[in-house]
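Supplementary Methods. Inverse-folding protocol.

Structures were first reduced to a discrete structure-token string of length 478. This string, shown here, constituted the complete conditioning input.
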């Protein structure tokens, strides 16, 4: 597709694919009103009178096909340029939601001169016409795909322009630096010598700004994908009780009989705005019967696939042989500990039943155990104590900063992240060049590189490949 020619008028069903009471067909482009004139008959219009719709008004009538056969009864909404989603003339038909109605209305629009819209093409036009920057266009997609309120809030912050504002302010610093250096190249004799230490500190500030922006990426990924957290441990240490305390529900079976939680029980909680699926695994121990063996396998698999593993022990009893069994199942046996099935992700040791353990201390744990766990947390599942510390520990092992969820709210996506990393690399080269005392024209090459990469985030610098990559992810009608 070529992005210069937005001359076609495009049309698509913009509501969901499932059957619904009402569906919306959107037409956008310079021929939107002429096409609507051909296919739409306003209820109260006089015969022979040309329909000249007003912007932002709703008309009632029928969409008609060949020989004025009625195809559906519709509401027609007209939004004239530039006050529309695409900044072009837009006409929308609200028709009945059945697939037949939608398809017939759409087909008659196409026969009247519209072209079927490609995925994301309405939003692409909004971008090309300057209504949204590229990061905002991506936020539209993120908003539609959000699974949690926190993810939607983050997308809305991006849609408001938060990412663009941040990147443009970094770009401004970069542009000023390039301008200053190029002035030296052109009028070297007339200007005082470059203040290298100030330039170096400007470059460092830019790098710092990029680093801060990059820190939102991890949180953004978590908001979009969520986290799978496996709770493992020998029977009776309080895994199910912990899950229940966390969710405040009774979804998991709590019992004092070892090995009751046969199947993996799932529960959803929100930690720091991140959707977390908690998986209470069946007790892992060297079981003698087949059911227990299946439990062990399933538990191990769950733990291997999880983003974080929480291993629960009984703080009152301390580190027991049963705990060592579980530990070796998941992290391999000493001395080699080279089992290929080892858990790779971060792990937290949860010492539960603190109410019964006056003097539990991590010092009593074997060294290999202490080394394996990024964090050790104490809890009392029965009194719902220690859960905040556990949540903090989870964010800590993932390297997520508390601020990123409460600060600006928006988060950069994978594509933006890659562009920012490239900008950062270019700036590293600039610092090296400054340190090596190379001539000024060397500096500007990499500064310009950084400028281009930053511009790719907002779409100020854009190629067709980037647009294809971004809008190819959209579905038709957006
Ligand atoms: P699981 O087999 O690891 O899932 O353990 P459960 O959650 O079924 O708990 C086993 C027993 O320990 C139950 O009787 C719980 O009431 C008890 N329990 C769980 N957490 C605590 C705690 O923090 N303190 C005390 N005192 N008892 C607990
Ligand atoms: Zn249990």
């Amino acid at each position: 597709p070529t992005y210069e020619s937005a001359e076609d008028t495009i049309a698509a069903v913009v509501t969901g694919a499932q059957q619904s009471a009402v569906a919306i067909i959107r037409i956008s482009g310079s021929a939107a009103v002429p096409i609507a004139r051909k296919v739409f008959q306003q209820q109260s219009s006089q015969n022979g009178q040309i329909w000249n719709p007003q912007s932002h008004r709703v008309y009632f009538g029928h969409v008609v096909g060949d020989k004025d056969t009625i195809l559906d009864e519709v509401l027609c909404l007209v939004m004239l340029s530039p006050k529309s989603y695409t900044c072009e003339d837009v006409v929308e038909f609200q028709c009945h939601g059945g697939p037949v109605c939608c398809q017939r209305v759409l087909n008659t629009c196409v026969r009247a001169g519209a072209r079927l819209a490609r995925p994301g093409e309405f939003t692409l036009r909004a971008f090309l016409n300057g209504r949204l920057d590229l990061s905002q266009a991506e936020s539209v997609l993120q908003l539609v795909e959000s699974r949690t309120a926190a993810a939607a809030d983050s997308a809305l912050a991006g849609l408001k322009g938060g990412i663009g504002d941040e990147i443009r302010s970094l770009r401004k610093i970069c542009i000023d630096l390039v301008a200053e250096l190029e002035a030296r190249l052109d009028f070297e004799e007339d200007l005082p010598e470059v203040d290298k230490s100030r330039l170096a500190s400007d470059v460092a500030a830019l790098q710092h700004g990029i680093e801060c922006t990059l820190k939102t990426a991890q949180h953004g990924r978590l908001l979009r994908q969520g986290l799978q957290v496996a709770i493992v441990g020998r029977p009776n240490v309080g895994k199910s009780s912990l899950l229940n305390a966390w969710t405040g529900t009774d979804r998991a079976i709590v019992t004092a009989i070892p090995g009751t939680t046969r199947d993996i029980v799932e529960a959803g909680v929100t930690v720091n705005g991140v959707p977390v699926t908690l998986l209470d695994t069946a007790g892992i121990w060297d079981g003698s019967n087949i059911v227990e063996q299946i439990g062990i396998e399933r538990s191990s698999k769950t733990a291997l696939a999880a983003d974080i593993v929480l291993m629960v022990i009984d703080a009152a009893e301390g580190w027991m042989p049963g705990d060592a069994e579980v530990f070796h199942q998941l992290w391999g046996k000493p001395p080699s500990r080279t089992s290929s099935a080892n858990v790779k992700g971060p792990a937290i040791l949860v010492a539960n039943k603190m109410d019964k353990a006056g003097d539990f201390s991590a010092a009593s744990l074997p060294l290999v155990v202490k080394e394996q766990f990024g964090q050790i947390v104490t809890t009392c599942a029965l009194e719902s104590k220690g859960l905040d510390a556990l949540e903090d520990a989870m964010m800590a092992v993932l390297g997520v900063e508390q601020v990123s969820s409460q600060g600006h709210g928006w988060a950069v996506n994978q594509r933006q992240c890659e562009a920012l990393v490239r900008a950062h690399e270019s700036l590293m080269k600039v610092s090296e060049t400054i340190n090596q005392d190379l001539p000024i024209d060397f500096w500007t090459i990499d500064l310009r590189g950084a400028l281009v990469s930053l511009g790719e985030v907002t779409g100020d610098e854009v190629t067709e490949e980037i647009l294809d990559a971004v809008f190819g992810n959209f579905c038709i009608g957006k």
